[in-house]
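Budget justification aside, the reviewers requested a transparent look at the raw inputs and outputs of the sequence design task funded under Objective 1. We therefore reproduce one unedited record. The lines immediately below are the structure tokens for a 238-residue chain.
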């Protein structure tokens, strides 16, 4: 099965932009009467029929709608962007495939970068959703100060974690996280969080956690955190 993305599917018919039209008709060689699967990125899966195979403006008609329910849990990754943007883009792509619900980039005391290109990352996310057959597009937020984020009352009902490197911090995330919860986990920059930032997080009920014995790059830590939280919830269903 191949999955395509189109945000505005309120009407029974809709047309694709030129780039998507060309890919569908010229590359995949679809024609009038062929069925194509689409999602709006909000949980709906649409079975559509091509009614006009114009490679510049393909028109489709919705034949069937199917709503995919929300997960019983919610993973919010808050991470300091790396100096190398390619690594961060790779991480965003992979955690979308694994199953993240929300991403916030942070600026902390030891951060190497204080800006990101949201538009570019959103394109990476949509491409990853299409590839991994996901009907929900994760939310991605503009960069925020770490000190401000940890004091946000929005997360009062979340399980809150902060991952950092310390020999005393030896309890793995998988030992602390509970299934069927909303989570937020903080991942610091290559230089890790400062002691003052750690204390502020602890004072706001963020629990320290380990992601394993190895010293991980920031983007690897983000990937491990999302996978671990997904795994906890998948095991529960077995």
């Amino acid at each position: 099965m191949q999955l395509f993305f189109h945000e505005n599917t309120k009407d029974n018919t809709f047309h694709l932009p030129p780039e998507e039209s060309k890919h569908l008709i010229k590359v995949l060689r679809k024609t009038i009467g062929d069925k194509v699967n689409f999602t709006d990125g909000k949980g709906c899966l649409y079975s559509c029929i091509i009614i006009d195979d114009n490679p510049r403006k393909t028109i489709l008609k919705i034949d069937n709608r199917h709503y995919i329910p929300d997960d019983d849990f919610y993973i919010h990754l808050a991470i300091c962007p790396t100096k190398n943007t390619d690594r961060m883009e790779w991480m965003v792509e992979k955690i979308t495939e694994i199953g993240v619900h929300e991403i916030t980039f942070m600026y902390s005391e030891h951060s190497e970068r204080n800006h990101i290109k949201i538009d570019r990352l959103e394109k990476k996310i949509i491409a990853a959703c299409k590839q991994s057959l996901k009907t929900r597009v994760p939310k991605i937020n503009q960069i925020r100060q770490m000190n401000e984020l940890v004091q946000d009352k929005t997360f009062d009902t979340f399980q809150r974690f902060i991952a950092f490197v310390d020999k005393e911090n030896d309890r793995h995330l998988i030992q602390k996280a509970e299934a069927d919860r909303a989570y937020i986990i903080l991942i610091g920059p290559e230089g890790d969080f400062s002691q003052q930032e750690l204390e502020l997080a602890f004072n706001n009920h963020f629990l320290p956690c380990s992601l394993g014995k190895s010293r991980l790059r920031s983007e690897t830590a983000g990937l491990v955190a999302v996978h671990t939280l997904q795994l906890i919830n998948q095991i529960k269903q077995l």
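Helices lie at 18-27, 85-98, 118-132, 146-149, 173-176, 195-203, 218-236. The longest helix spans residues 218-236. Computational costs for records of this kind are itemized in the attached budget.
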